[in-house]
């Protein structure tokens, strides 16, 4: 991994820029997917925090997708040979220039760090990207997004049980993640990763016991619970870290706890009460 680390360092600083329009249909479709009953978005309405994930979608052609359905590496990201990809977490700062429906927007994307590591399941490489999103009013969002590339599962490998999640939430919600929910979120984010919809692939090739719930989907559910439980407050920052996978067809729960300093701690508890994700929301 030492030689690989040296090779990967050459990719740090790789940049690209995308433009998009905050069209009303994607948030309308996410409202339907989350079943919140909100009115249809209209031109000029503010875009809720983190809903920019519905834009700047990767449109790699079919011929450039790998075995897992994801774009092959070696263009923007380095050609890391480890086959399994997982979302690891993210951090956001929301600046005083909110995005609105109808805005023309630009995203600057940069590879900011690449860290090879060795864990209990073998070799891993963590890749972090820095993203800056600008709207008509200036810099709107800064994001640090992390992914991890891992070895194939070894025969008989079992997932380590996560630690137990807290039980002192101020607000909670239960989600029943059926394949339809996973399909809708994959479609909305143009996510071709087969671990979310291809049962034979995810069990026989990647070695998981079932379809995985998207990490970003669970992250969105946490900030949605936090902001809807504290109406009238402006989100200043949000961070979220993945700790353990969650699988389709078994209900998990979303939790948020009001803290003395005014922030809100969020987390996802798997069906057995294990901590699957943890996050933090601060307000301006």
UniProtKB/TrEMBL annotation:
Name of protein: Acyl-CoA dehydrogenase
Annotated region described as Disordered, given as residue ranges: 145-170
Q: Give the species this sequence originates from.
A: Vineibacter terrae
- Highest rank taxon of the organism: Bacteria
Task: Cite the Gene3D superfamilies for this sequence.
Answer: Hotdog Thioesterase (3.10.129.10)
Instruction: Please name the GO terms that the record assigns under molecular function.
Output: (3R)-hydroxyacyl-[acyl-carrier-protein] dehydratase activity
Return the PANTHER family for the record: HYDROXYACYL-THIOESTER DEHYDRATASE TYPE 2, MITOCHONDRIAL
The FAS1-like dehydratase domain, residue ranges: 77-134
Q: State where composition is biased (Basic and acidic residues).
A: 145-160
């Amino acid at each position: 991994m030492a030689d690989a680390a040296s090779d990967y360092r050459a990719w740090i600083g790789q940049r690209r820029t995308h433009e998009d329009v905050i069209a009303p249909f994607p948030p309308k479709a996410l409202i339907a997917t989350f079943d919140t009953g909100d009115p249809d978005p209209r031109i000029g309405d503010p875009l809720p925090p983190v809903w920019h994930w519905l834009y700047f979608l990767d449109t790699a052609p079919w011929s450039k997708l790998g075995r897992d359905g994801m774009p092959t590496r070696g263009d923007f990201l380095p050609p890391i040979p480890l086959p399994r990809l997982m979302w690891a977490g993210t951090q956001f700062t929301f600046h005083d220039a909110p995005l609105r429906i109808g805005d023309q927007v630009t995203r600057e994307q940069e590879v900011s760090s690449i860290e090879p590591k060795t864990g209990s399941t073998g070799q891993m490489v963590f890749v972090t990207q820095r993203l800056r999103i600008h709207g008509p009013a200036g810099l709107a969002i800064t994001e640090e997004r992390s992914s991890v590339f891992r070895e194939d599962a070894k025969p008989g490998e079992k997932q380590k049980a996560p630690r137990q999640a807290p039980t002192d939430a101020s607000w909670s919600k239960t989600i029943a993640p059926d394949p339809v929910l996973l399909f809708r979120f994959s479609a909305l984010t143009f996510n071709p990763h087969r671990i979310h919809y291809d049962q034979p692939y995810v069990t026989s090739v990647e070695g998981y016991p079932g379809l995985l719930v998207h990490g970003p989907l669970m992250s969105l559910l946490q900030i949605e619970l936090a902001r809807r439980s504290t109406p009238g407050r402006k989100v200043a920052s949000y961070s979220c870290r993945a700790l353990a996978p969650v699988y389709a067809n078994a209900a998990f729960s979303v939790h948020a706890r009001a803290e003395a300093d005014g922030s809100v701690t969020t987390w996802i508890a798997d069906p057995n009460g294990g901590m699957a994700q943890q996050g933090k929301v601060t307000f301006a």
